[in-house]
Amino acid sequence: xxxxxxxxxxxxxxxxxxxxxxxxxxxxxxxxxxxxxxxxxxxxxxxxxxxxxxxxxxxxxxxxxxxxxxxxxxxxxxxxxxxxxxxxxxxxxxxxxxxxxxxxxxxxxxxxxxxxxxxxxxxxxxxxxxxxxxxxxxxxxxxxxxxxxxxxxxxxxxxxxxxxxxxxxxxxxxxxxxxxxxxxxxxxxxxxxxxxxxxxxxxxxxxxxxxxxxxxxxxxxxxxxxxxxxxxxxxxxxxxxxxxxxxxxxxxxxxxxxxxxxxxxxxxxxxxxxxxxxxxxxxxxxxxxxxxxxxxxxxxxxxxxxxxxxxxxxxxxxxxxxxxxxxxxxxxxxxxxxxxxxxxxx
Length: 346
Ligand SMILES: NC(=O)C1=CN([C@@H]2O[C@H](COP(=O)(O)OP(=O)(O)OC[C@H]3O[C@@H](n4cnc5c(N)ncnc54)[C@H](OP(=O)(O)O)[C@@H]3O)[C@@H](O)[C@H]2O)C=CC1
Ligand SMILES: CC(=O)N[C@@H](CCC(=O)OP(=O)(O)O)C(=O)O
Fold this sequence. Notes:
- Belongs to the NAGSA dehydrogenase family. Type 1 subfamily.
- This protein is α/β, with parallel strands linked by helices.
- It folds into two domains: 2-125, NAD(P)-binding Rossmann-like Domain (Rossmann fold, 3-Layer(aba) Sandwich); 149-314, Dihydrodipicolinate Reductase, domain 2 (2-Layer Sandwich).
- The two termini are 34 Å apart.
- It has a seven-stranded parallel beta sheet, sandwiched between helices. The protein has a seven-stranded mixed beta sheet with strand order 9-10-8-11-14-13-12.
- The radius of gyration is 20 Å and the shape is globular.
- It has eleven helices and 14 strands.
- Ligand 2 is lined by residues 100, 148-149, 178, 182-183, 211, 233, 235.
- NADPH dihydro-nicotinamide-adenine-dinucleotide phosphate is lined by residues 8-14, 34-37, 75-78, 80, 98-99, 148-149, 181-182, 184-186, 314-315, 318-319.
């Protein structure tokens, strides 16, 4: 059994990690940490775990984590994560970091969007934790930068089309809708019930959202040249889920059937990507609580554009499920170990 710990376990991604890890057949969850809940029982902070998990929260002490675990999930805010991760690696632990601190290859790009990087020497060894793109590198990594939720949904939607050179890369537009849990458990006016319920709004449009450079980093690599994308996030009154609709112009002379073939071939071994074509388009309800990314698409022959619809659960595939999948690969387990539960559609 692999001993694992979660730093920042009192937040939403921490909760989702506990839910998945407490039934994982190859793992023992030994330690959960939080500053504000230190000393409290987990099932007092999250009564949903009554009868399932009897741990008590500790403070985030790297020595204690090294005694109790072989791999740590850091589910902390950006900046806090890069303070802890080097301490854990020095003590011989493996780390899956859920923040943005280890997603970028270029420290200057991270610093342009976030803040000064205090562990830039680790960026070249950190592996971007999207298994469909980096499965082999993840297997041997000691540090994985788990992708952002919006980037996961968008990169998976267009990767096959860029890899097969079927679209004009500069024409990619991504229109995404996220549930409110994407903003974390902390209270803020933006995510207040009355500010969100019954409404729908765009935010940080026109290249202002910090996920834009992350999406561009990965899509540029697939395209083989630097590219910019138009990314428009929206906040919707749901608890879980992201639906991204991605548009791109097909290269002249591309037959619509080659789009179907590109998805089928790119994802032929992808355990957690379900291809829906244009018949039964994806919905956030159909992936809820699961690590699936469902993809549907259609070529609009009148405009020459392909439209791809991508649905994930932001807390599972967009964060903690993907993190568990990465842990499975790093530990040599089956990729879907602990992630086989069907989605929860009512
Ligand atoms: N929510 C989502 O859908 C997604 C989130 N992520 C990323 O995952 C990480 C966790 O997100 P999420 O669970 O939503 O966030 P939450 O705000 O819900 O939880 C954050 C956790 O970190 C702890 N924490 C907060 N501030 C600090 C600090 N300065 N030092 C140490 N610990 C701190 C909190 O507990 P305490 O204050 O008690 O210490 C809590 O346990 C973030 O980096 C987020 O960007 C990634 C993908 C999707
Ligand atoms: C709805 C909402 O607020 N979503 C968050 C992104 C979700 C997330 O946590 O992304 P990171 O992992 O990169 O932090 C936002 O727009 O900033």
